Amino acid sequence: MLALLLTLLLTPTTAPAFDIVDLLGRSDDSAEVTAFVERHMPTTEISRFGEDYYLLSPEAGVNLFFANVNRTLTNVELSNGYAGPMPNGVRWEMTRREVERAFGPPPMIDVGVDDVALIYPNRKLHLNFPTDALTDGEATLEWILLFDHEPMALGEPTKPRLQFRLVQPEDDDAEPMTDPGTGLNLAVGRNVHLDERDLASVQVMLSPHDDRPLIAVRLTPEAGEKFKVLTAEHVDRQLALVLDGEIIFAPTIRSPLGDTFVIESGGEPDVSDVRRLAGQINAARFALPE
């Protein structure tokens, strides 16, 4: 018994591995945040925005953003050269292909002017690469944003992930789906007329009429011609845009369309939700070949 007690006393205990993601949601005076700042941010500057503020440490390659009167940590920015604990086992030398091997294809991709973000909401990760990463799986990670997203329910994606399918007047050879705009059950035809390979650009914009956030879509010239014929032949029919097996938009075709159109959300759409949907569409567009 004494030998067992001595063994238990002398056996070192292993502390749980620290992940910087765990700092999100903590207040600026919490023990965890204070210890991180003292250890990994030797010099700091403060930049204030009303009740919110950034704690900046350019020398260490890390910025912390604290929001609202509770001063909770909502964003962490890490630049290449930051040498502290990394989130989710990410490494600076990782390529886009290595990231996708580790975490799977990103549920969302945000395409900026100078960079591309692979977004993993359930891991709270924005992994930012140069724009070459849209087609080059060997492009390497440049900077990281940690942000506390709402969790996403992720299922097995269908291939192709984005599908343009006509709603059938009857249930014959159709798949039942729910229109998120109306809540009605629709019989969606199984024939895929266009998919993500037919998209030339996907951008979030504000309506010039009422500033509602929209997604502006432009098709390739070949797909635009095909879309014009499809919509001309099916005026007054519904066209379902299906992403990963769920309808995201099911407008009624009122007249022939060309190579540009907009995706509108019903009700009072939040710009963050619209950006999220555009990111999911871009993730389908820019998936790396297997």
Keywords for this structure?
290 residues; four-stranded antiparallel beta sheet; alpha+beta; single chain; disordered N terminus
How far apart are the first and last residues' alpha carbons, in Å? 58 Å
- Backbone shape: elongated
> Mean pLDDT across all residues, rounded?
86
**Major sheet characteristics:** 8 strands, antiparallel
Gyration radius, rounded: 24 Å
Contiguous low-pLDDT stretches (5 residues minimum) are 1-16
By DSSP, the count of extended strands is 17
Instruction: Give the structural class.
Output: alpha+beta
What is the helical fraction, as a range of percent? 10-25%
Enumerate the strands of the largest sheet in spatial order, edge to edge or round the barrel: 1-2-3-4-8-7-6-5
* Helix count, DSSP H or I runs of 4 or more residues: 5
| H/E element sequence | HHEEEEHEEEEEEEEEEHEEEH
The share of residues in extended strands comes to 25-35%
